[in-house]
Each structure stands twice: as C-alpha cells, then as structure tokens.
Amino acid sequence: MKKIAALILAFSCCLCEPQTHDGNDKANQGTTSVGYCDICSRTSLTQNLGAVGEKIANMDEKISLLETKLQNTEKEVLELRSLTGGTPRVAFSAALRESGSGDTGPFNTATPLKYRRVFSNTGSSYNPSTGIFTAVVKGMYFFRFSMFNNLRSVPSSVVSLMKNSERLTSVWDTSGSDSNDMGSNAVVILLEVGDNVYVELQANRIVYDDGMNYNTFSGFLLFTV
C-alpha cells in the first residue's frame, strides 16, 4: 500500500511540472496555469492520499481481526488435541459364552463370571480370561450387566456386580411358575486406579446362555476426576 501511495504522488507531480513558453505574455500565462495546476494537484493528491490511508487503516484492522481469529482457532485445535490425545478411552462389552449353549454353575463358592465373547474392549481394561475389569485411570464409570435363567426351578440364579470385594448391586431369580426369567442392573461409580469390577455368580446358583447372548457385562469411562 505504501508503494501505491508513492506512485500516485510521483504521477501527480509529473502532471504538474512547469512548462517553458516564449514571450513575456506566454510566460505570465504559463505561470498562472502552472500555479492553478499545482493547487489542484495538491488538493487532489491530498484527497487521494487520505483515501488510500483510510483503506490501509481498514485493511490493518481486518488483518488484526483475522490474526485474532487464527490465534483462537489454533487454541481450540490444541484443546481438542489434548482432549482426544490426553484422556484415556475406556469402554468394553462382552457376552458370557463364545459358542454353544448351557448352564454356568453351580459352584460351591461365589465365583466371578468370565464373559468370553468380547464385542469391544477399547483400552484393554477388561480381561476375558478372568472376567475382571481393572481401572487404569481415576474417574466416574458406568457398568451394566444382565442375567438369564432358563427352565430351572432349583437352584435359582443370583448374580452381583462387585467392586473389589464390595457388593454394589444384584439381580436374582427364584423358582416359580414361569419357565425362564431375565433381569439386569447398572451403576455409576467412582473408581481409583487399580480398582477391580466384575460380576459374581453366587454359590450354588446358575445362569443359562446360548447364541442369543442373554448374559452380558459392559462398562465405560464417563469422565476423569
């Protein structure tokens, strides 16, 4: 913009350079014309320079606004990267049997159920070999489990969601007139790093499953604390 202003000034000066005339009358006439041209040129030049200066100021303001927006955008990108890259992603879901059908249990003591058909296990916090979920980060978690009993009178089905050795919630079915029953339960709970969560089949109880995958265990991290 400064170069454009300089070119306008130089061009205006060239248009108004004094010209040489023969004779006194012509000289006087030329002097008057040059003086008039000089006044007009300066007035026009001042106006042009003012307009150019105003445009430059407007462009500087727009550039400042764009720079501010760019800085804000870069900040937002960094915040998004910190969220996606810095916060663990933890989620899993599994069913009881990999294949076949039949009862699980009864056992003489309370036993963790091993959900072997894994649908998802982001973060690898769930171990299908043991049926235990282990928290890798402190936070609020959601867990849900379901239970199914098929054509059994005795023993009945009782399963509980456990945190370490603490019982959180349970689902049960006793013998009755109906042929099968199903239930589920869920919790939202704070876990510390290393806490274990699992579903426990109570002693002398059973659950039934087949390819329909009635018995499931799922959980995911809601947010860190």
Automatic annotation (TrEMBL):
Q: Which Gene3D superfamilies match?
A: 2.60.120.40
Q: Where is the C1q domain?
A: 85-225
Subcellular location per the Swiss-Prot or TrEMBL entry: Secreted
One of the record's GO cellular component terms = extracellular region
Q: Does the keyword Secreted apply?
A: yes
Q: Which UniProt keywords apply?
A: Coiled coil, Secreted, Signal
Domain of life, per lineage = Eukaryota
Query: Where does the signal peptide begin and end?
Result: 1-16
Coiled-coil ranges (or none): 56-83
Please indicate if the UniProt record lists Secreted as a keyword: yes
**PANTHER family hit by this protein:** CEREBELLIN 13-RELATED, CEREBELLIN-RELATED
Question: What is the designated name of this protein?
Answer: Complement C1q-like protein 2
What organism is listed for this UniProt entry? Stegastes partitus (bicolor damselfish)
